[in-house]
Amino acid sequence: MTFNVLFLCTGNTCRSPMAEALMRQSVPAGRKERFDISSAGTSAAPGDPASPGAAEVMAELGIDLSGHRARPLSAALVEKADLILALSDPQKAFIREKHPSASGKTYLLSEYADKAGKHESIADPLGGDPEVYRQARDLIHKYVLMIAEKIQ
User: Fold this and answer.
1) How many CB atoms lie within 10 A of CB 12?
2) Rounded to whole angstroms, how far apart are CA atoms 91 and 33?
3) Whether 40 contacts 72, CB under 8 Å
4) Taking 80 as the threshold, does the pLDDT of residue 151 lie above it?
5) Active site residues
6) Which class for 149: exposed (0-12), middle (13-18), buried (19 or more C-beta within 10 A)?
7) Which strand (E) or helix (H) includes residue 37?
8) Helices (H), the chain
9) Which residue in 7, 9, 71, 90 has the most C-beta neighbors within 10 A?
10) Counting Cβ atoms within 10 Å, is residue 25 exposed (0-12), middle (13-18) or buried (19+)?
11) Strands lying side by side in the sheet with 35-41
12) CA 61 – CA 65 distance, rounded (Å)
């Protein structure tokens, strides 16, 4: 049985594609087949590529986002997901408002990674310089690694 994890941000071109790729990389080799990891956006334009800034900072880690294409959140994606990890509070609130039945499986990334720690939104780096993208990437990576450790 596959466990479906959905990362959610606004445009599905920066934060959630980075989270998706980092999680794919971080899941232990012997467990990869047990997970379906994807991403979407609450206001995504279908087919948009990853932002140049996200692609640049992910390439620094050897991760290629060139094949990523944005997709909007749909009721089918929400229903299929076993876990929805929002990158910021507005996306978590969006799920609770538009898909209340999914509230129990929707968390901020930071909240799910460290239930006792600081629950923080990850700021959208769109339009920022590479350092802003690196900060978002590194924060996402920190939380993704915490989750990956739990599933080993």
Assistant:
1) 28
2) 27
3) yes
4) no
5) 9, 15, 124
6) exposed
7) strand 35-41
8) 15-26, 52-59, 75-80, 89-98, 109-113, 130-150
9) 9
10) middle
11) 35-41, 3-9, 83-86, 106-108
12) 11
- For residue 112, give both structure tokens: 């799910």
Domain positions in the chain: 3-150
Please tell me the distance from the alpha carbon of residue 88 to that of residue 50, in angstroms, as a whole number.
18
Helix axes 15-26, 52-59, angle to 10 degrees: 20
Which tokens hold the place of 108?
């901020």
- Dist. CA 55–CA 102, nearest whole Å: 30
Residue with the two structure tokens 């640049």: 56
pTM: 0.96
Mean pLDDT, to the nearest integer, of 75-84? 97
Tokens 């739990």 correspond to what residue? 150
| Tokens representing residue 17 in the block | 């594609």
pLDDT tens column, 120-138: 999 999 999 999 999 999 9
| Contact present, 70 and 10 (Cβ < 8 Å) | no
Name the CATH superfamily for 3-150. Answer: Response regulator (3.40.50.2300)
Place of tokens 């232990």: 28
Instruction: Match 């749909």 to its residue by tokens.
Output: 74
